[in-house]
Design a protein that fits this description.
mainly alpha
């Protein structure tokens, strides 16, 4: 198997792109985009992830089997993020009015002080 040699210029350009995306991430965090703030942050993060995986991990010039395993890892990450966000976004809406569970009882004495 012959390995593709990537020029140092490519590494420098990718590094510069990552630095620009880093400052873009910081800039996006300083501006309130409302509900689109997490979407913008995730899009920037995915672009950075693709640059690292394709160039620095040499997936771009690897065999199709390497592409399959890289895609499987990304798919697994998406499954985990989806399940985590599904849990996070539905917290408190499943049984919020059930006062029989002690953890859900509100201490009214400490709130009135």
């Amino acid at each position: 198997m012959s390995a593709k040699i990537i020029s140092p210029k490519t590494y420098v350009l990718v590094w510069l792109a990552l630095m620009i995306l880093l400052f873009l991430t910081w800039g996006a965090s300083e501006i309130n985009f409302g509900v689109f703030s997490p979407v913008i942050a995730i899009v920037i993060a995915v672009i950075k992830m693709l640059l690292v995986v394709l160039i620095f991990m040499h997936v771009r010039y690897s065999s199709r089997l390497t592409w399959v395993f890289a895609a499987a890892g990304f798919l697994w990450l998406m499954i985990m993020i989806t399940l985590t966000m599904g849990d996070y976004l539905t917290r408190g809406t499943v049984r919020p009015q059930n006062k029989s569970i002690p953890e859900w009882k509100v201490d009214t004495e400490s709130q009135s002080r």
